[in-house]
Design goal:
Elements: H1 7-16, E1 39-43, E2 46-49, E3 54-57, H2 72-82, H3 93-105, E4 111-115, H4 118-133, E5 137-141, E6 186-189, H5 194-202, E7 206-211, H6 227-238, E8 241-245, H7 257-262, E9 268-271, E10 282-286, H8 288-291, H9 309-322, H10 325-348, E11 353-358, E12 361-366, H11 383-395, E13 398-399, E14 405-407, H12 414-436
Bound molecules: pyridoxal-5'-phosphate.
Length: about 450
């Protein structure tokens, strides 16, 4: 197996740090072991870096690249629009067509507004919920990430010894410089526990319940049977807006997102990432009665780049492909092969690990012997050990997230998956004995 090393990336990131803080433009790109990487190009399932390495990529830009790094149809659609017009500060047929596609594919989507990023889409959904209900309180959950803005960046990755009692979680402020007042009306609960949530909603003063319908950001955790249905019913009964943040799951775990796959329809849902395969598109979709409150301008939603025409053309081409059954048949088949191959490889190496989630986005939790129920049950994950594993795996030509998630694209064929599993087995042979010693 050809070994990869990254001296040029390391040098370049270090040198660029004199201009770009930390050498990166998103904190999620900091702290990657052995170094943040600098890329030259992407092709299919591969990224090529400035050290001349070809890496099988399971970061997929943290989710968007569901059709791989070079889908000819999406790129051609964007090219065509490049020659036609860049940004109008007005409407185009493209955004109407893209919105129509969303309404065709997503159960809750009677209306659609496009936005610039997932973080912005979440802000719009919460503003709408508050305006429509005339209530301020929003409930979110430990370990769920909804973007980096002050109002929601709470308890997404709290240290396990700072969580407080599960019945009354401590609200954990995630960033230095974050305005604590922005979380005044935010309440944090532990996910997948119906009773405390249902009784809180029943008090009748909650504007919105905001959740990842399946926890993809920290653990590949599915809702327990009946949980989402019970929350849906409680929200309906008390006039609370149920918001599914489908920024990861949307157009990734199926053409209808998590809501389609899991059979529970929220009032509003947020989308980004896989909707446009790398182009800057986010969206809020939802019930007409709620969304139409945006029509008279009294609820503010802006964004210079919203529904940018080239990105809309890319979104249409992406949704076109995602709505074909063959696309998800491929993703499901190869994703399942990868999940079960990983589970077997860890078991054969004598390392406890769970592999949970969906074939298109799942998580390996090193150190767990049973699937996690919520954020708190991830306390037993050997994070340091898994980081050593992903750093060594990168050296064997496979790029997977340090925090355990694996994103799949249609370009990760059976052969690519098998090459990946060979690299995983080789990596575990190298570093597995050290991991088994349990040093965290
Ligand atoms: C579930 C979820 N919501 C919101 C966001 C924020 O999206 P963006 O990074 O486009 O602002 C993310 C980003 O990873 C996410 O995973």
């Amino acid at each position: 197996m050809r070994k990869c090393s990254f001296p040029r990336s390391a040098d370049r990131v270090r040198a660029a740090s004199s201009i770009v803080p930390g050498g990166v433009n998103s904190n999620f790109r900091l702290g990657v072991a052995p170094t943040p990487l600098v890329f030259e190009r992407g092709d299919g399932p591969y990224l090529y870096d400035i050290d001349g390495n070809r890496l099988i990529d399971y970061y997929l830009a943290l989710g968007p690249m569901i059709l791989g790094h070079s889908p000819a149809d999406v790129i051609a659609a964007a090219h065509r629009q490049l020659d036609t017009g860049l940004l109008y500060g007005g409407q185009s047929e493209l955004e109407y067509e893209a919105a129509r596609r969303v309404t065709e594919m997503v159960p809750c989507a009677e209306r659609v507004r496009f936005a610039g990023s997932g973080s912005e889409a979440v802000q719009l959904a919460l503003r709408l919920a508050r305006a429509v209900t005339g209530r301020m309180t929003v409930i979110k959950f430990e370990g769920h990430y909804h973007g980096w803005l002050d109002s929601v960046l709470w308890s997404n990755a709290a240290p396990f010894d700072e969580l407080g009692p599960e019945d009354a979680p401590v609200k954990w402020l995630a960033s230095a410089g974050q305005d604590p007042a922005a979380g005044t009306h935010l309440e944090v609960l532990s996910w997948n526990r119906a009773e405390p949530l249902l009784s809180r909603i029943a008090r009748g003063d909650v504007a919105a319940v905001l959740m990842e319908a399946a926890m993809c950001n920290s653990g590949g955790i599915l809702a327990e049977p009946g949980y989402l249905e019970a929350v849906r019913e409680a929200c309906t009964r008390s006039g609370t807006i149920l918001v599914f943040d489908e920024v990861i799951t949307g157009f990734r775990v199926g053409p209808a997102g998590a809501q389609g796959r899991l059979g529970v329809t929220p009032d509003l849902a947020t989308f980004a990432k896989a909707i446009a395969n790398g182009f800057t598109v986010a969206a809020v979709a939802g019930r007409a009665e709620v969304m139409d409150r945006l029509s008279d301008g009294r609820i503010m939603h802006g964004g210079t780049y919203n529904a940018q025409p080239m990105a809309m053309a890319a979104a249409i081409a992406t949704m076109d492909r995602l709505s074909r059954p063959a696309t998800f048949e491929t993703l499901e088949r190869n994703g399942r092969r990868l999940m079960s191959g990983l589970a077997t490889a860890f078991a054969e190496a004598g390392l406890p690990a769970t592999v949970t989630g969906f074939p298109e986005i799942f998580t390996v939790s090193l150190g767990l012997t049973a699937p996690a129920r919520n954020y708190r049950s991830l306390a037993g994950v050997d994070r340091a050990g898994y980081r050593r594993f992903t750093a060594a795996l990168l050296g064997n030509g496979v790029r997977a997230l340090e925090r355990g998630a694996w994103f799949l694209s249609t370009e990760h064929t059976e052969e690519v998956v098998d090459e990946t599993l060979a690299a995983v087995r080789a990596t575990l042979a190298e570093v597995g004995p050290g991991l088994a010693s349990g040093a965290r």
